Task: structure prediction
Amino acid sequence: MQSGFVDAITNPYHAPRGNGRNDPQLAEALTKVSPEMQAKARAKAQDFEALFLNSMFSQMTSGIKGEGPFGDTPGTGVWRSMLTEEYSKSFAKSGGVGISNEVFRTLILQQAGGASQA
Result:
C-alpha cells in the first residue's frame, strides 16, 4: 500500500497534501517535473526538515546537567551533538513533523513553473 508523495509520484492525479486532502495543483506540477528531479527535491526537503529538527533537539538537550548520556561530563557535548543529528535524520526520514512535505510541494511547484516558462 502506497501513501503520501510516493503515491503522488506513481499516480500524479492523486497527490495528497500533508492534511490528507488531494492536491490537484501538485498533481499537475508532478507531471511536468522528471522523476529524477522529484527524488532530488524529496531528498532536499528531508535534509531541510532534519536540519530544523536537529536545531530543535539541540535546544531541548542543551540545559540538561548531571550524569548519563545527556549529562554535563567531559566529552558528552560532542556525543550529544552526534546523537541529536542522527535522531533528526531518523525522524525526518520516517515522516518528521510535516515540514518536508510542504518544502517538497513548494520545490515541485517552483520547478514546474520554471519548466512551463522554458
